[in-house]
Design goal:
By secondary structure, the protein is of the alpha/beta class. It contains 10 helices and 11 strands. Bound molecules: nicotinamide-adenine-dinucleotide. The site of nicotinamide-adenine-dinucleotide has 24 residues, from helix 10.
Length: 277
């Protein structure tokens, strides 16, 4: 049976680091670091995410300030709200809940967030920061959460072969860049990749971010591998599942992240840690 790389101890370590950072911030500035959540409407999944962030923030002495905008808020009003927060010296980070309603231009809105305050790492400037290594903005939280898990469990990366399934702007591509920065030899696989199994079996570290149940089966892996399952999917019974067929893969590989309780449980901690960047 493989070692389970659980997210909780990783998240706890990041939160402890953030708490220390928040205390130092308080000493210097006489106030706690503050994140503004900009939420358009009141979708149940947004509200659940907001509660999760507030719970974690309470553990780290970070302040959360929610701006709730009407579901039919105008483009101008949304951009004005973002601009006001960009300019507010007492707001240290901004998180815009996505997706936005259809009448709003998501790309325009995320790019209106100042890179220094882009907690989620979703603006083009943050992406540039990841690709150029310049420190502008923040890496997208999920990609960084994977790196935090690998670092916490001391998975060697330098000179190792890392295979990433998925090439999205928020997970696959930035993750490949972060792995490259740690001197891994990186292959990015996607929906047009031929013989995916042949690629995945060569990996020392295999990361699946395809968003498909059963993407990684027992025949796609071998012993000696570390497998990170980024996928969050729901089966017909409404049960949360990753991309990896756990029953088949757990017996074969050395280490594996669970779903739930793996990557997803680390992302909110990463988000709060960005407040101190
Ligand atoms: P996406 O749909 O934007 O990208 C999926 C990628 O997978 C695409 O690049 C596509 O080429 C690739 N892909 C799809 N089918 C494939 C196939 N058969 N073979 C090879 N590649 C294939 O998704 P995303 O936003 O990158 O998210 C990916 C998964 O990660 C989803 O399940 C999502 O829910 C999950 N996710 C988890 C977290 C977290 O905190 N754990 C955060 C964000 C996303």
């Amino acid at each position: 049976m493989s070692e389970l790389l659980k997210g909780k101890p990783v998240a706890d370590a990041i939160l402890a680091r953030t708490r220390e950072g928040a205390a130092a911030f308080y000493k210097k500035k006489g106030r706690s670091p503050k994140a503004a959540i900009i939420r358009v409407g009141a979708r149940p999944d947004d509200l659940a995410y907001e509660r999760g962030i507030k719970n974690r923030a309470a553990q780290t002495d970070v302040e959360i300030d929610v701006e709730e905008l009407a579901e039919d808020v105008s483009r101008e009003e949304l951009l004005r709200t973002i601009k006001r927060r960009n300019e507010d010296a007492a707001t240290d980070g901004i998180l815009l809940f996505l997706p936005l309603p259809d009448h709003l231009d998501e790309q325009e809105a995320v790019n209106a967030i100042s890179p220094q305050k882009d907690l989620d790492g979703v603006s083009d400037a943050s992406k540039l920061g990841v690709y150029t290594d310049s420190g502008i903005g923040n890496p997208p939280c999920t990609a960084q959460a994977v790196m935090e898990i690998l670092a916490y469990y001391k998975v060697p990366l330098s000179g190792k072969k890392a295979v990433v399934i998925g090439r999205s702007q928020v997970v696959g591509k930035p993750l490949a860049m972060l792995l490259l920065k740690q001197n891994a030899t990186v292959t990015i696989c996607h929906s047009k990749t031929h013989d995916l199994s042949q690629e995945t079996r060569q990996a020392d570290i295999l990361i699946s971010a395809a968003g498909r149940i059963g993407m990684v089966t027992g025949t796609d892996v071998r012993d000696g591998q570390t497998v990170i399952d980024v996928g969050i999917n729901f089966d017909s019974a409404g049960k949360m599942k990753g991309d990896v067929l756990y029953e088949e893969v757990a017996d074969k590989v050395d280490c594996l992240t669970p779903v739930p309780g793996g990557v997803g449980s680390v992302t909110t901690a990463v988000l709060l840690s960005h407040l101190l960047h």
